Protein: Phospholipase/carboxylesterase/thioesterase domain-containing protein
Amino acid sequence: MNFTWKQLESSSSHQGDEAENGNPGGHIILAHGFGAHAGDLAPLAQNARGNARWLFPQAPVTLQPGSYAWFPSTARDMQRVFDGEYFHQLEDMSIPELGDRADQLVEDVEELGIPWENTILGGFSQGSMLALRAALEHRLPLKGLILLSSAAVDRSRLSHLLDQEYRVPVFISHGNADPVLPFPGGTRLKELLESGEWDVQFREFAGGHGIPPEVETDMVGFIGDLLR
Structure:
């Protein structure tokens, strides 16, 4: 395995045949954001409906104990992160580590024996960028994508990949006062995916870089609609 993984089960009183047979009704894979860890998004599984297996990969770049990142990995780029400029330039940046991590994520999921056809893939912040890149580069036959406070990293590359006959239902949320990944970048990502005729559910919220309760509620509904 390339990454460390945290796994949780969610269930409700309406689990269906899959629960009776001891099998998950679906898989939800969510990747954390910069400076977090594999358990950071695990609370999202607690309020989910249905019978599903939730999986949370942990990024390989250690910032400090309990704090990890998917990218960047060089000292120079990391300094740009802490200077505040790096994440505002993502649309024009080609990030080799992101492609490498996407490949590694796909390898891990397939090693775990998880079927893509019954999986929703996503993440928060740079974890969502990882999910989108993996989906597009590998044309994963997903149930859906969840992109929480995301951005169109290497926009020209994404535009090229969207020229292909590949579409996935996607849930996007973004705070209109986000200081880390400004809101206009979220709307540009939405418009980019819509240009590829993707079915996009976009949730703007009043706030910054996070996942407020109203977004969690809408995300749980999105998951429930896809996995029921």
Observations:
- The chain has seven helices and nine strands.
- The CA atoms of residues 145 and 170 lie 5 Å apart.
- Confidence is low (pLDDT under 50) at residues 13-22.
